[in-house]
Amino acid sequence: MDFLSPDMLVILFFVAGFAGCIDAMAGGGGLITVPALLATGITPTQALATNKLQGTAGSLTASLYFIRRGVVSLKDMRFAILCTFIGSALGTVLVQQVDTSVLSSLIPLLLIGIALYFLFSKNMDEGEQKITLHTFALTAGFGIGFYDGFFGPGTGSFFAMAFVSLMGFALPKATAHTKVLNCTSNVASLLFFALGGQMVWMLGGVMMLGQFIGARIGARLVLTKGQQLIRPMIVVVSVVMSARLIWQNYFGG
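Predicted structure:
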């Protein structure tokens, strides 16, 4: 099979590494990896499933980096992780039975709104906490987890905005917690894709290695560069995701 040729595997390794670095900082790595996987000639379902496999490696790597450095407490996040997992699992099951075209039209507007929020918000330092972490888990954790299993684009941006606006987290701390919940939703979705037999394991394995390296670099940049790097990255990624979804909806690209 051509998509398992050495040249293709090397290209996908570097694509995944770059995507993992971007994803660890601002989300949106799937913008890079999904088109690359589709270009190999595998089916769209196989591309989405394999993308979850390699994407999980990247989000897990970044999450472990933040946890080991004490930025995220797993004990505090246990309920949020559970709610996110359940939401993502339900979304993954439901997406196989309904039409997602309405979301395809709505999500670009939401992503543009997120870009404007991060672009014009004057203060991204520690702020006022508006709800408890328990309430956050039941609302944002479950809801955004469901969205990730059901549709996906912009999940990292939605989590980051929720942590900043609802929990009062500074942007680097919000990004760290975002990766933990994004990893959770990825794992839940991955399990259902694997059960469906859609995974291309060789491609996913090679890209997992690239993701591991890229995500480690990106996670380090989050803690060393902070807002000066993350804020513009989230704005750019949100705008690019919006543009791509609009193009797909109206021009069939």
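Summary: The chain has a mean pLDDT of 85.
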